[in-house]
Structure formats: C-alpha cells, structure tokens
Amino acid sequence: MEDTLGRNINYLRVSVTDLCNLRCQYCMPEEGIAKKHHGEILSLEEIFQVVKTAADLGIHKVRITGGEPLVRKGILELIENIANLQKIKDLAMTTNGILLRQYASDLKAAGLKRVNISLDTLREERYKNITRGGKFKAVWEGIEAARKAGLCPIKINVVLIGDFNDDEIEDFAKLTLEESMEVRFIELMPIGQAAAWAKNRFISNHTAKERIKGLIPVYDGDRSSPAKYYQLPGGKGKIGFINPISNHFCKHCNRIRLTADGRLKPCLHWDQEMDVKAALRAGVEDLGEIIQKTILAKPLQHTLNRSDHAPVERDMYRIGG
What we know:
By secondary structure, this protein is an alpha/beta fold. It has one domain: Aldolase class I (TIM Barrel, Alpha-Beta Barrel). It has eleven helices and twelve strands. The protein has a twelve-stranded mixed beta sheet. β7 and β8 form a beta hairpin. α1 runs parallel beside α2 (75-83) and α3 packs parallel to α5 (136-149). The radius of gyration is 19 Å and the shape is globular. The two termini are 23 Å apart.
C-alpha cells in the first residue's frame, strides 16, 4: 500500500516486549523498567493478527524487535506462525545476541531468516561498562551460533558514540575482511535516554567513513534500505552507514512500527500513534482500516536536524529497536 507521498509501505517492525536483559546506558535506566501487567501488552495472538492483516495490505517484510525479543515467552511460536504466512517474504530479528547461542537453531527451524545484532564495542570491559554488566563473550558465541544455524547475512549494528567507541571504527570494519557479515555504523539518535547523549557524543558517519581507508561503494538495489554500503578491497562482507541525522533517508522510507503495548507508529521520530490494542479488544472488525490510517499518516520526514526538534516522548526500548 502507498502512503500519501507515493512511498510503497511494505515493512512492519514489531516490538514484542519493552523488557531487556541488558541496561545499556544510552537506552535504559540503570534500575531497569517496571514489568507491564500482562494485559498492558499485546498477546502473541494479537500481534499475529496485526501482522496477518498487514500482510493482506501489502506488508511482506517483518522484523521482530524489543527491548530484547528473545526474553518474550512464546517467541518461537510467534516466529513460526508469521513465517507460515505466504505473503511474508522476509522475516528477521534485531537482538542483543546474549541469548542467541541458546536460540539460534530453533529460530532458524521456526522460519526466521536472519538476525541483526546490536554490538557497540569489541572490547570486553567496555561492553560490560556500556551495558552495565553484559558479557561480550556471550554475544560473540551468539554470533557464531547464528552463523552456524544459517541466520545470514549477519548484520552487526554499531551505534557510534563519541569518547566511547570511536577508536574502534577500523576494528569493526576489519571484521568484514574475512567474514561475509555486514557491519553497519549508526548515528546516535536523540531519543529518550539517548537525547542528552546525542548532544554531547554525536559523531557523524562522515567522520567514520574518513577513518576507513579504501572503501568501495556497493549498491544493493534497495532504495528503501537506510544503509549506504561499501566494501574493503578483497573483503568478504560489507560496511554500511546509516545516517538518520546527517543525511536522512525519509524519502524512501517504507516502514511502520507496532509497539509492544499495541500502538502503531507511522514514524519513529513522531509522537503520533494509533491505538490498535484498544481496537482489537473492542472487537473492531476492520483492523485493516487502522493500519491504512497509520500508513496514510506517515509524514514527509523527521525533524531531527532542525533546531526546534523535540525528542519523541517514548524511549527507544518502548518503541522497538
């Protein structure tokens, strides 16, 4: 289905929980968050109903997110049900990787095609610091398990943070020399906990590109992809740069989002939401109408790079990564 600007909206990002087993400093408060009552979040059956209806309207790409999606009980069953929808052609997940060693094979068997793994440092102590206690070894073992299970191509999402990991840009890039993975550098966005961080620690991807010598542009044919890709000479993998601040990709945005508490968002950086949970529980028959309204409400672009921009009220973990 097209929005009012002629963009083909075929991608739904589904947050299944706002809970996480890490406490990343730019994402979650140190004390964590209060667990919502069961009735405050969508059931897996309700999530599936939204996805199925969206698929009938032209959505063919779904990404499962959180919080950390692998802490949601019943996640494998949901993956299998979505994978069995014939109209869904691409089913992926964004995860912090901590539980991947345990789940990788089962996720593949359930029908998941690939994973994106959030990883901001390759150094054990730094990882422990930024995540407030996370174990880097567990993530790396999860990456290995995902590779063996065939959840490929594996994409490593690296949020660039000044005075934290900007001295590791070259190290991350070198991962693509011997491995057919994709390393993607993402500019720090002013959302929730990260709003203050972005003011003081923002690094543009222009700076990151200057640190990596010999980059060769690669075009994958997908205009809706937020990443611009490159390769190192002789490299097996790719290096991507996602620039939501310095060079936004709103013109070709093809996505809407479903939050764990049942709100459809036409844009990550706008507070506008549609209450699909209330509609589901009120027995509204035409769920598709609400999805259509969400698509038609997509704005031209975000206002992150405007001086009068106000960060969205929700933290990223409450929206979905």
